[in-house]
Write a structure and sequence with these properties.
Number of helices: 16
Order of helices and strands: HHHHHHHHEEHHHHHHHH
Strand content: under 5%
Shape: globular
Radius of gyration: 21 Å
Distance between the termini: 15 Å
Number of strands: 2
């Protein structure tokens, strides 16, 4: 039993996996930007400023960005040397063995699957509001889950299927669509930056740090710059989806590190600029609203801003959804290929060169969750899953440097093991600032995954044969 849990997989060349190799470093960088710039910039920035960090939300973004940067450098090393479409799951299989790999894969399903359903819910809300701006109303029964008094959240259900079909058509087409939509949302952000710069009032930045670094209120709520960092970390979740594209990159050893580091660097700069301007044009105390960017622009006299921002949000969340669904399908594809879930899902359609069966299954499951279950605070659990996967990737770099010192590493972390150790410490610290209920849900999720492993995956693993 002990030997089965710790059995590792050797590094395999997946160049003949059947998936189409068509993504450039530019495509990969925009894949990361497409997933990272969404809810975080349009929604969380204002909420974190109003309730946790004040104008020092800029520091919250910097701290979360630094923690992500350590993880990104670790991802880049493993993506270039180990490769494969399984991201942290695949790296854990090589570094730690099958059981830890399964747990990592299970955590990634939480990160990508629940994340996609949560984002679809958010997109649906903005979609219904935008229709309302044009005096178009959907029946309330078709915009709410049954538990909320409706029949189905049809916009959330429908958008998942639109993107599922796009993913089935082909990865190059999906990447092209992603690139166009990213351009639209970056234009929206550029317009906000231009308008906000004309109305900057530095007095709004005083007091700069009204909630301090970190403290816990009597009701158990964590506040302060560090608590804000653990909240806005949601804004960085998803850049690691770049690593799931390893088998569809033209030159993965060179392009994956570029895509990972470029997307994270760009997003961090954008977050810092937008959060500084947002708290500079409106007092931070007024920003605890569902669409703080639109609210702030209206406040300084641009009443047409809500439509502009709604366009940016709708475009932004579509690319987030697309990349999350893409990452989810590729991780499950890798797990299926290893025998840990049914091998049916690792079959590649020879015409489209995409794993259509796993894409269909993911579309069906995520659309049902998005359409019939209101996720609410469950989305917070995505943060803890992301942080856990970042930590394991950092540990994986250290372990593989010891176990396989001669492994070819086209990209190497400088100052090893300093970078991965800092990644472990910073991501671990951010996990401690998350609420207790988030830890409880996370523990239940892992427990369910462990049961599935011992009931099915351990016995059907390819390594078992």
């Amino acid at each position: 039993m002990h030997r089965k849990l710790l059995r590792t997989k050797s590094i395999v060349d997946h160049s003949n996996s059947g998936l189409k190799k068509c993504l450039t470093a530019f495509d990969l960088a925009l894949l990361g930007i497409g997933c990272a710039i969404g809810t975080g910039i349009f929604v969380l920035t204002g909420i974190a400023a109003a309730t946790q960090s004040g104008p020092a939300v800029v520091l919250s973004f910097i701290i979360a960005g630094i923690a992500s940067a350590f993880a990104a450098l670790s991802y880049a090393e493993l993506a270039a040397s180990v490769g494969g479409s399984g991201s942290a799951y695949g790296y854990s299989y090589v570094a730690f063995g099958e059981f830890i790999a399964w747990v990592m894969g299970w955590i990634l399903l939480l990160e990508y699957g629940v994340g996609a359903a949560a984002v679809a819910n958010g997109w649906a809300g903005y979609f219904v509001n935008t229709l309302g701006n044009f005096n178009l109303q959907m029946p309330e029964a078709l915009t709410k889950a049954p538990i909320m008094g409706g029949l189905i959240n049809l916009p959330a259900f429908g958008i998942i299927w639109v993107l599922t079909i796009l993913l089935m058509v082909g990865v190059k087409e999906s990447a092209r669509f992603n690139n166009i939509i990213v351009a639209i949302k970056l234009t929206t952000i550029a317009i906000f930056i231009a308008l906000a710069s004309l109305h900057l009032n530095t007095e709004n930045w005083q007091p700069f740090m009204p909630f301090g670094w970190f403290s816990t209120l009597e009701n158990g709520k964590n506040i302060g710059v560090l608590a804000g960092a653990s909240l806005v970390f949601f804004a960085y979740f998803g850049f690691d989806a770049v690593s799931t594209a390893a088998e569809e990159a033209k030159n993965p050893q060179r392009d994956l590190p570029i895509g990972l580091i470029a997307s994270l660097s760009f997003c961090t700069v954008i977050y810092i600029i937008v959060s500084a301007l947002l708290t500079g044009i409106v007092p931070y105390t007024e920003l605890n609203v569902s669409s703080p960017v639109a609210f702030a622009l209206t406040k300084i006299g641009y009443t047409w801003a809500s439509t502009l921002v709604a366009t940016g949000v709708l475009a932004g969340l579509i690319t987030v959804l697309l990349v999350l669904l893409y990452g989810l399908t590729r991780i499950l594809f890798a797990m299926s290929r290893d025998g840990l879930i049914s091998p049916i899902f690792s079959q590649v359609n020879p015409d489209r060169q995409t794993p259509t069966k796993i894409i269909l299954m993911c579309g069906a499951v995520v659309s049902i969750v998005a359409g019939f279950i209101p996720l609410g605070e469950l989305a917070e659990t995505v943060n803890i899953g992301t942080l856990a996967s970042f930590i394991m990737v950092c540990v994986g770099v250290i372990v593989l440097r010891k176990r396989q010192p001669l492994l070819k590493r086209p990209f190497k972390n400088p100052w090893n093991p300093l970078i991965p150790v800092l990644g472990i410490l910073s991501c671990g610290a951010l996990m401690t600032f998350l609420p207790a209920v988030t830890w409880m849900r996370f523990g239940i999720w892992i427990l369910v995954g462990v049961v599935i492993y011992f009931v099915y995956s351990m016995h059907h693993s390819k390594l078992n044969k």
